[in-house]
Amino acid sequence: MPKPLSILFVASEIYPIAKTGGVADVAYGLPLALRDLEHDVRVMLPKYGAISERKNKIHEINRLKDIPIDVGNVREFATVKSSSIVNTRTKVQAYMTTNKPYFDSKWGLYSDPETGEEYPDNDERFIFFARSVIQTCTLLGWIPQVVHLNDWHTALVAAYMRTLYTQQFKNTKIVFTIHNISNQGVFPLKTFQKTGLPDTALENLKHKNKINFLKAGITYADHITTVSKTYGEQLLSDAKLTDGLNTLLRARKDSYTPIINGIDTTIWTPEKDKLIVKRYTIDSLDKKVENKEALVKRFNLQYKPETPLIAMVSRLVEQKGFGLLKEAANALFQEDLQLVILGEGDKDIEEWLQAIAQQYPQKMGVKIGFDENLSHLMEAGSDMYLMPSLFEPCGLNQMYSFAYGSVPIVRATGGLKDTVHEFDPVSRIGNGFIFEEYNAEAMLAAVRRALALYKDKSLWVQIIKNGMSEDHSWHNSSRKYEEIYRKLLQPQTNGKA
Ligand code: ADP
Ligand code: GLC
Question: Over the stretch 1-25, which tens digit does the pLDDT of each residue have?
């Protein structure tokens, strides 16, 4: 039996403490799965203003109070508190950085919930957070063997470890996961001075004459991963998608592995889900309809058992394909279907979604906001689940949809392409509907294929069962991460995996 590893997993959001999207679910499910493999895993995130101390059972740690941290010429203080994340099997300790101006006094994670504007001091906030990660390890005397960083918000940790703190972290390996390269943490050059990094680091952060936090992750990490095979290929080849960072990634190709995300199957399972109206399994699909009835009513639509119900739960951003939906809306609502959407994000998308729902009040329901509980009922109650993404690094909702017997209709990009396979009525193989081109016609055609199949109950049950019987848990992917960690730590590989 190889020895368990010590791993610090750092992310800007971790379910259920703070969540805006899929990173939070990964930063929950993966550490818990690694803990199941016996590793000493701990997680760390900032404590934003919206996080309740009581609900998350947060308490103080004596050694981690009032830690001085310099951001440029300003000295601020971090108090790092402790909480945990749990599932039905396991528990993992969570450290949370508190600081009044940067986190406690700000309700949103990255932007002001009132205006939708990004916080103007996001560079300072995540410099401060990165330095608090370093200080936490040092003051605890817990120097993990692996530090696993996620997206630009945490990337500077790698830069600090390999410049100012080389001695402490000389035996620590760094893994950096890119969940979404469309956000790189780009700031004016003067941000560099606030990092306190040595001048020699500038070239590793500078991209297109700006400071780019994500670039630091790519240059300083020992190994880079991303969240699906297809997105992995896109990151190496697509200059537009990566804003030119693809060349840098190509240069690191030997230290780069795509690993598909998993889902936490103790949380996302219709068999045990307490957030849905009626629990069910692959053998009691008849009970799923009670969820459908409850769901349409939540959206003030009329319950029509024979009419297919399509759901979307999503950040309302261009990435998620709302442009296509807007273009296709009039044609879509000529069909016999109902559509329910839960999401928040860009104000203009929020507005036109509400306008279309007003135009088709019998057919479309929209709820603007973030509602974790409702998101479960959306999976359990819907017949189909739409993800027409422009790009999608991995996507988790199509995998939740498989688990809940809601058939995904998706565009062939990133993780959607890797997990969803068009159903073939002859061989009865396949788990969803998929279209290639990013245009309304292609999307409508896929929706129409789904609507046609829905009429054949035997085939429809088959497609549901195909999806429900697949394994999308973290079982396989957590082992792939473990393998990377172990390879990096092997002395004979000279630190490269
Ligand atoms: P992304 O990370 O790009 O947003 P993913 O498919 O990986 O996309 O993950 C999205 C996660 O966020 C899912 O768990 C989804 O249910 C959740 N989610 C997104 N928007 C909302 C919302 N408005 N209310 C509740 N959950 C949401
Ligand atoms: C990002 C991506 C999404 C992915 C998630 C978790 O937010 O947009 O596709 O599933 O990260 O990796």
Answer: 789 999 999 999 999 999 999 999 9
Same domain? For 345 and 446 the reply is yes
Co-location of 291 and 196 in the same domain: no
Element (H, E) at 146: strand 146-150
What's the token pair of residue 27?
């930063």
In this structure, the answer to whether residues 177 and 86 fall within a common structural domain is yes
Looking at the fold, whether 485 and 457 belong to one and the same domain comes out as no
- Residues 399, 472: Cα–Cα separation, whole Å: 7
User: Does 366 fall in a domain?
Assistant: yes
CA of 398 to the centre of ligand 1 (A): 11
Q: 428 lies in which domain range?
A: 285-468
Per-residue pLDDT tens digits for 34-44:
999 999 999 99
Ligand 1 atom closest to the CA of 23, numbered from 1: 2
- Ligand 2 in contact with 21 (CB < 6 A)? yes
- Residue 65 main-chain phi, psi, to 5 deg: -100, 140
Sheet holding 309-316, edge to edge: 364-368, 338-345, 309-316, 384-387, 407-411, 433-435
Task: Give the integer Cα–Cα distance in Å for 52 and 348.
Answer: 30
